[in-house]
Predict the structure.
Amino acid sequence: MVKNQLMPTALVALAVIACAMPTTTPAKTPKSQILPLTCISLEKPMTTDEITIQENTQAKISNYFVGVGNIWEREQPDAQGVIAPRMSATLAISELNSEQTRHEEVFVGSLISLGSDRYCVVNVDEGNSTPGTLTMRKFP
């Protein structure tokens, strides 16, 4: 009699355990296995040439149109791969001589290549009652 009751109890226990196990998928692999190159980790000195672009506008920089949008806090990895909430922006980068456009999510310390020129993001400000801004500094 005890054996007959033990089997259904064991099956119910296994079913409860199976239902309680997490059903989430494994963490998504980042878009790129290569960690982002950040200008904060580079040893080269920078110039004082700064460019500030207001959110929802674009600027002509180094033969590219660079538009800034979607400024908010996102989970982003730094140069060491540490993922943390960072104030960031989405850049729409269009080469003037072609119709090619690329999009990049950047935060303070991100390195942006525009042709042979490189820029470091030095500030991302979400703005309060006004559009936010992104400031970049050109490497010499």
In short: Residues 20-35 have pLDDT under 50 and may be disordered. Strands lie at 50-54, 57-61, 64-77, 83-95, 101-107, 111-114, 117-125, 133-138. The radius of gyration is 24 Å. The CA atoms of residues 60 and 81 lie 31 Å apart.
